[in-house]
Amino acid sequence: MAIAKGIQKSLEGSSLIRQMFEEGMRRKAEFGADQVFDFSLGNPVFEPPREVIENLIGLLQDDTPGRHRYMPNAGIPETRKYIADKLSSLSGLLVEPNDVVMCVGAGGALNVILRSILDPGDEVIVLAPYFVEYDFYIQNFGGQPVVVSTKADFTPDIEAIGQKVSKKTKAVLINSPNNPTGVVYSTKQLKALSDLLVQKSKEFGQPISLISDEPYRGIAFDGIEVPSVMALYPNTIVATSASKELALPGERIGYLGISPNHQDRSLLSEASVLALRTLGFVNAPALMQRVLPLVDGVQVDIGPYQKNRDILYDHLVSLGFECVRPQGAFYLFPKCPNGDEPEFIRQAQELNLLVVPGSAFRLPGYFRLAYCFETEMIERSLPVFTELMRRLTPT
Q1: Which domains does the chain have, with CATH numbers?
Q2: Which of 57, 64, 301, 333 is found 20 to 30 A from 394 (Cα to Cα)?
Q3: Are the beta carbons of 177 and 329 closer than 8 angstroms?
């Protein structure tokens, strides 16, 4: 076999999200784009704010020498300071530029963090349902994902997490606002998780890092504030990106931030820079690093996301779908009404309705809908969901 056995195994269980997205593209070519309702991929159709485009144009027209050369691997000093100040404001802690490493998106940041902390056989606790690429990121470095189910409302089950923490546990990986459920973890829930990890770190004589994946932080609805994990647990490492807040997923700009209270703060900073370099990223894209401080306070208008959530959620619930109301991000995660996920997905596809099965997020029996699309498409899809439920409901 020409490829690695580990990659072969990963290919066999590769992302169902992408598979559904590609099926949607095939169907659009066959039936016409207006006849296909593709809710598979969280790839926002909304363009970046005008301020982002204008500042990018300005940077490209700037003929100052060296603007596109290598910089320190951790990132442009001014950008790192800007990010450190943002994290300080959010957490109430004194985050320094050395606590920040600019990365190639949140995915790159997570890989850098995991490369920095994992030895073969170490375990990382993940809370189902979750973005399944986490498994591959952990396994990239010889780690083992340990899956813990959340409660019925998709919030952390602290008791269940405690039962899975062991001397092999190196980190717990959380994501709030959450993909695929849209749930936002409350301060009370995060404090309970913090108390547990402080206790377990003492019990096993080693720090357990809490990795907070936060690309949806800026997309929260109904006045909900997303708590700072860094403010609540000392051994926190944040990973995030501008993909969602600035609608720049293709530009791959993100960062990791280490809590100034982390037990291994300095070592983690050094390890992260080395991991960034040796993983082949070398540094985050210079142009995108330079634009971030110039668009401070700018983000996409979340009004269309909230409108789409309300339209889709209200309609599905009226039809009898069971679904936790999302508080953020841009996903719904309803339960399959017939309890048969493969049959539900098949019936949906017959109506050119593309959704992602819950098994893609390690929770069979559900399905994910991304609603980061034009409201017009959402509204056109409503009769299709009505017909789908009619087909699934016994007469």
Answers
A1: 5-49+300-392 (3.90.1150.10), 69-294 (3.40.640.10)
A2: 333
A3: yes
Name every residue whose Cβ is closer than 8 Å to that of residue 155 and which is 6 or more positions away in sequence: 183, 185, 186, 189
- Can you point out the beta strands (E) in the chain? 37-38, 100-103, 123-128, 144-149, 169-175, 209-213, 236-241, 254-258, 331-332, 353-354, 356-357, 367-370
pLDDT digits (tens, 9 = 90+) for 75-115: 999 999 999 999 999 999 999 999 999 999 999 999 999 99
Alpha-carbon distances of 355 from 65, 289, 340, rounded to whole Å: 48, 34, 14
Pairing label, strands 367-370, 331-332:
antiparallel
Closest CA to 15 of 179, 183, 182, 164: 179
- DSSP characters for 258-269? E-TT-TTHHHHH
CB 365 within 8 A of CB 336: yes
Coil/strand/helix, residue 230: coil
Digit-coded pLDDT (tens) for 18-30? 676 677 667 666 6
* CA 8 and chain centroid, separation: 25
Helix (H, G, I), strand (E, B) or coil at 353: strand
> Which pairs from 65-72 meet CB under 8 Å and 24+ separation?
67/286, 67/287, 67/290, 68/286, 68/287, 69/286, 70/282, 70/283, 71/283, 71/286, 71/289, 72/283
pTM score, whole prediction: 0.95
Q: Count the alpha carbons within 13 Å of 5 in the hemisphere toward its beta carbon.
A: 0
